[in-house]
Design goal:
Blueprint: E1 6-14, H1 21-29, E2 35-37, E3 50-52, H2 65-69, H3 73-89, E4 100-105, H4 111-124, H5 133-137, H6 141-150, E5 156-157, H7 165-178, E6 184-191, H8 196-204, E7 234-242, H9 243-248, E8 255-264, H10 277-290, E9 299-301, H11 308-322, E10 330-332, H12 335-338, H13 345-359, E11 361-362, E12 385-386, E13 391-398, E14 402-409
Parallel strand pairs: 4-5, 4-6, 9-10, 9-13
Antiparallel strand pairs: 1-7, 1-8, 2-3, 6-7, 8-14, 11-12, 13-14
Helix pairs in contact: 3-6, 7-13, 10-11
């Protein structure tokens, strides 16, 4: 069966280092950290007191004040990024609205609503629960609201695979357009889990960095002195489009998605499979799907969480697949700057991959000062570099052993 080519024609971002794509990219190039002390709630009793959060956001261009009060933060972030992406694409959704779908993932959804309503239920009883509780809380509602705001009436869904949610959503959308089931898809992820319960849960799991006295240095993927990941929040949205449709309307094409692979570890609820065995299979599947060789990959945007197990196992998986080429390609983790935006990570990182084609530069891994024995690749430490990237791989791995890998290609007509 012939498969339709799928290109990227629009991008939108809400991140701790930039509330739109140009500012986000500028932050990456400067090696800017978006991690700081949490001041949205009292963190005095928490072992971790830092996160990558987005400050001073005005949502009124996208929602009226009443809507803002009854919409959870991850949805607000997702809609804002989606409107930027659609505007950037120049896509006239109204003219083909049945052929434009939405696939936007979230790992946790509206956790702040669950917290508030649980307290309300305990204090005041069921009669005081908001009728908007369910639509504010469920992870699929970012996709639902984006469709309502944009008029996209095609396939609409949401992947919930922890930190691989956005990547799975993008992979699913890629397949839909390949099969001709949609002409365009608004895709990505949104997350806003820096809340009392969200933070406490990861603290209890002992997953987080406790470098509270030096927040901007806390997220340090692949560094010998890493001590855990840093929570982040944000949204990344892209417009995937059938190549022929994009070409027919003279759209600006930023890049192409050519491969998607996924796997399950079947190993542990939080720890990755030893030596990155599951990640290895997902990366291999993506390469096979793209029909390219390992030597074609120039850059890997790593999952790179800054945890002991992920960084070691991901590096081992890369070396297992790429062999000698592993030491020639560039690998970096932008989580060193944004923190880990969980279910939104894959989409924000996909935007970084696409921008490497357009700008001819690779973002760095900041705070990567001294690598450990197992982490001995070129992680583009501390400073962005110029590079001509033809193919980029983006890795996303989630709790529960969910692995998703995407391959993007520089657009060459």
């Amino acid at each position: 069966m012939n498969k339709n080519r799928v290109v990227i024609t629009g991008m939108g971002a809400m991140t701790p280092i930039g509330k739109n794509v140009p500012d986000f990219w500028d932050g990456l190039m400067k090696g800017q950290s978006g991690v700081s002390l949490i001041d949205q709630f009292d963190v005095s009793a928490y072992t971790t007191k830092i996160a990558g959060t987005i400050r001073d956001i005005d949502f009124t261009p996208y929602f009226d004040k009443k809507e803002i009060r009854r919409t959870s933060r991850f949805i607000l972030l997702g809609v804002a990024a989606a409107i930027e992406a659609v505007k950037d694409s120049g896509l006239d959704i109204e003219s083909i609205q049945n052929d434009v779908g939405v696939e936007v993932g979230s790992g946790i959804g509206g956790i702040e609503i669950l917290e508030k309503m649980a307290v309300t239920l305990e204090k005041s009883g069921p009669s005081r629960i908001s009728p908007f509780t369910v639509p504010m809380m469920i992870p699929d509602m970012a996709a639902g609201l984006i469709a309502i705001k944009t008029g996209a009436k095609g396939p609409n869904s949401c992947s919930v695979t922890a930190c691989a949610s956005a990547a799975h959503s993008m992979g699913n959308a890629f397949r839909l357009i390949q099969r001709g089931e949609a002409k365009a898809m608004i895709v990505g992820g949104a997350e806003a889990a820096v809340t009392p319960l969200g933070l406490a849960s990861f603290c209890a799991a002992r997953s987080l960095s406790t470098r509270n006295d030096d927040p901007t240095k806390a997220s340090r993927p692949f560094d010998k002195n890493r001590d855990g990941f840093v929570m982040g929040e944000g949204a990344g949205i892209l417009v995937f489009e059938d190549y022929e449709h994009a070409k027919s309307r003279n759209a600006t094409i930023y890049g192409e998605i050519v491969g998607f692979g996924s796997s399950g570890d079947a190993y542990h609820i939080t720890a990755p499979a030893p030596e990155g065995e599951g990640a290895t299979r997902a990366m291999t599947a993506a390469l096979d799907d793209a029909g390219i060789q390992t030597t074609d990959i120039d850059y890997i945007n790593a999952h790179g969480t800054s945890t002991e197990l992920n960084d070691k196992n991901e590096s081992m998986a890369i070396k297992e697949i790429f062999g000698d080429h592993a030491y020639k390609l560039k690998v970096s983790s932008i989580k060193s700057m944004t923190g880990h935006p969980l279910g939104a990570a894959g989409a924000i990182e996909a935007i970084a991959c696409i921008k490497t084609f357009v700008e001819g530069k690779i973002p760095p891994t900041i705070n990567c000062d001294e690598t450990s024995k197992e982490c001995d690749l070129d992680y583009v430490p501390n400073n962005a570099i110029e590079a001509d990237v033809s193919y980029a791989m983006s890795n996303s791995f989630g709790f529960g052993g969910h692995n998703a890998v995407l391959i993007f290609k520089k657009y060459t007509c």
